[in-house]
Amino acid sequence: MVIERLNALSPTVFQRDFVRKNRPVVITGVADQWPAITRWSPDYLATTFPEASVVYTAWESANPKNDPTDYYRNRRKHRTQLGLFINSMNTEKDFSRNYLTQFPVFREVPELVDDIGSLDEYLQVPRSLRSRFKKPPTMWLGPGGTVTPIHFDGADNLLVQIYGRKKLILIPPNQSRCLYYPCLRLGHVHYSPVDV
Questions:
Q1: What is the pLDDT along the chain (196 residues), one digit of tens a residue?
Q2: Which of 95, 63, 56, 94 is nearest to 195 (CA)?
């Protein structure tokens, strides 16, 4: 299946042709003018907000394989400062098993809030209900080679790639049985033991 790439797709068409039909899409031309696109790099974040408190996930295992079961059994959370985390990413040492996930960026670094625009029009949630149905934006940050095992999220997502690259493998819901959901031995129904 080819995932469509559409420039400046309108929120109405997005809802009608993609959200309601449970189809993924890559939308270009929406975040191009956000200051974050030209400003946010790991070096900028490390030098401008080095003391911001972050919690990252470390896969602490000697198993060299990309084994989802091993990952879920041996992942640990660690608190550090944003500058230290990014400096560790930039060393020669392999840091690819460490990933800053779901970082509440605007709670920890409110100075960055004006660097992005709003995507509320794409959500089509009534203003009176937004505080109950909308999660605040979060940031993911990791070095090259970072792998997240197959999982599904409990809610729809709008992902905006600000810096670097991210490869996503999207699997249609009707293929979930091939991923052995739910795999209760992983401790969560959201994760799959399959290594793609």
A1: 789 999 999 999 999 999 889 889 999 999 999 999 999 999 999 999 999 999 999 989 888 888 888 888 888 999 999 999 999 998 878 888 899 999 999 999 999 999 999 888 888 776 776 667 677 889 999 988 888 888 888 777 899 999 999 998 888 888 888 887 766 666 667 778 888 8
A2: 63
Range of the domain at 4: 1-30
Flag whether 53 is in a domain: yes
- What's the rounded Cα separation, in Å, for the pair 26 and 165? 14
CATH code of 151's domain: 2.60.120.650
Residue 22 burial (C-beta neighbours within 10 Å; 0-12, 13-18, 19+): exposed
Cα separation, 68 vs 119, whole angstroms: 32
Residues 21 and 117 in one domain: no
Structural domains of the chain, count: 2
Same structural domain for residues 19 and 74? Answer: no
Residue 71 lies in a domain: yes
Cα–Cα distances (Å) from 72 to 3, 66, 69, 76, 187, in that order, read 29, 11, 5, 9, 8
